[in-house]
């Protein structure tokens, strides 16, 4: 699914990037989530995927959620989404300085 591409930056520094070898599965998942957000009935696996994307903050970067009421209704009781939300809340520092951990680089902090 991934392929490694090696190159050099400034002609000196070796760089290895991992790129999708086949983007079709990625497009299929994005299309599936898009259909659910537009009103199609999801199955349990799709709800879990939606919950993981939503609670980790990725979903908002992929789609315009218009308030996210539908997403909240769909993922409210999903155990995986709740686990991700709990983890993110405990390990990231909020703008007001509260939180149990430090701001993670993956979540956009520095």
Automatic annotation (TrEMBL):
Chief localisation class: Golgi
UniProt cross-references to InterPro entries, sorted A to Z: GPP34-like, GPP34-like_sf
Entry keywords, A to Z: Golgi apparatus, Lipid-binding, Membrane
Keyword Membrane set for record: yes
GO molecular function, one term: phosphatidylinositol-4-phosphate binding
Gene Ontology CC terms, in alphabetical order: cytoplasm; endomembrane system
Membrane as UniProt keyword: yes
Localisation per UniProt entry: Golgi apparatus membrane
Residue span of region Disordered: 90-110
Bilayer disposition of the protein: Peripheral membrane protein
Database matches in Pfam families: GPP34
Protein name (database record): Golgi phosphoprotein 3 (GPP34)
Gene source species: Nonomuraea pusilla
């Amino acid at each position: 699914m991934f392929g490694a591409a090696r190159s050099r930056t400034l002609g000196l520094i070796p760089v290895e990037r991992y790129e999708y070898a086949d983007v079709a599965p990625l497009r299929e998942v994005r299309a599936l989530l898009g259909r659910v957000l537009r009103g199609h009935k999801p199955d349990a696996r799709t709800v879990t995927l939606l919950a993981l994307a939503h609670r980790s903050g990725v979903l908002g970067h992929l789609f315009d959620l218009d308030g996210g009421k539908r997403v909240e209704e769909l993922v409210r009781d999903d155990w995986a989404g709740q686990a991700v939300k709990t983890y993110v809340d405990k390990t990231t520092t909020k703008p007001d300085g509260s939180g149990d951990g430090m701001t993670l680089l993956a979540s956009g902090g520095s």
